[in-house]
Request: fold
Amino acid sequence: MICLGIEGTAHSIGIGVIQKKNEKCEVLSNLIKIYHPEKGGIHPREAANHHSTYIADLIKESVLKAKINFKEVDLVSFSKGPGLGPCLRTAATAARALSLSIKKPIIGVNHCVAHLEIGRGTLDDCNDPVLLYTSGANTQIIAFAEGKYRVFGETLDIGIGNCLDKFGRTVGIGFPSGPKIEQLASQGKKYLELPYSIKGMDIAFSGILTSAEQYFNNNEKLEDICYSIQETTFAALTEVTERAMAHTEKDEVLLGGGVAANKRFREMVKTMADERNASFFVPSKDLCIDNGAMIAWLGVLMYNSGIRMSVKDSVINQRFRTDMVDVTWRD
Amino acid sequence: MTKEKILYQGAEAIICKTKYMDYEVVEKRRIKKSYRIKNIDDRLISFRTKEEAKLMMESRRYGVSVPIIYDVDLEKGIITMSYIKGDRIKDILNDLNEEERHRVCKKIGMSIAKFHNNDIIHGDITTSNMILSDDKIHFIDFGLGEKSTEIETKGVDLHVLMEAIESTHSKYSNCFNYVLEGYKEQLKQDPNLVIRKIEEIVKRGRYR
Reply:
């Protein structure tokens, strides 16, 4: 089965074409175009305008790159939510138009669940992981329990990526700030104490952001502040993930989301996993960030388990929570 | 050294059953984590060990069942406490009949109110951290606890339990209402302030 997936929850528009082969996901093409605001954060309408400008060409290009023709596409999948309304609607509209014109079924999927399933679908031995999903907007620890993907821990205020970007904006290093902060942090030496806020398996970042900004205003070295932010936030994330693993008695950890690109972050989670004899997984970078292939793959899993959606029902849901999805495709 | 038995290896600590001056005791040893820098590791281990011991002793004074503390080693991060023989609530809650479950959850709520009345925040109220023994709910693992007078922190404290019940006992999520029933009965300040706060915290979460 070949599926074309359209991802459009936030600042990226992604089209992926995948094929199901031996129960695994084979990515045929996975194109991503990212909206970069000139200044400030993402303006939802402007991001949506960006998506609608490129989406039609991107769909054609992805089919071409997958070396198939439109007739071979069996299913059209799109990100139903959660995300920014205008962006979601742009992706969903494109999915409906495509589904109707090639006369193939449509299915809307949960973006967060897709991040987890693409790990299971593309990585060997990744079967029942605890997902640490860290992106701009999202910071969740997700695992399968009692028929659903449940959120065992999550941020109580802002996403980790958002925390890094906000700090980046304050100190003027542009968006996305994560890579720049990583680079600066590698030159930092002095640890500046920052609040470490964990509640059960939940986590909070806003206090860290405020303190880091104060250090900046007090002329502490930017390298040291970046180093301290990384060490503190990543340690806290690693800790809540370990707590979730102990709580759910699972021995696999999977990273997902854009922040997973950070080397220090990967190293910390891997060390934690090694020390408890657990397996550590990260999908390739283009499957870690928001992408169409993961949307396509989850579409296939859901469709094959018997889920159907009519165009009429293909509405988006900005607040589509992870635990609202009935997981019909695994035991 | 007397013979030891590892009762539980958690994310943060190893729980060992051992002997201390002929008493049957449990040692909670916090594990050094090499993923975090020494500065953060030392600070967390010593701070949490101290806070935990303090909060446990104080909770006991206010009538909450907790293990008796015999010894605290801040540098190594070890708390030696009495051994409580019983069942973790996590392991038994789903198997109780409705009436029993109601009764046990109500008791849990009453105990939480007792420490909240005295501004003690547990910090990690999950069903893994409660032991039913001698028909009393014993609370363990105050490692993420703190003292706070704020409605907000009390709300967050209960919100952790709400999430734990939703994820681990999803078929019996009415349990949380039973907990609140006991909580309301025992709390000295207006419990609706805290309950409204929980609703606010839920809404504050992503996509609620």
Chain B has two domains: 5-82, 87-204.
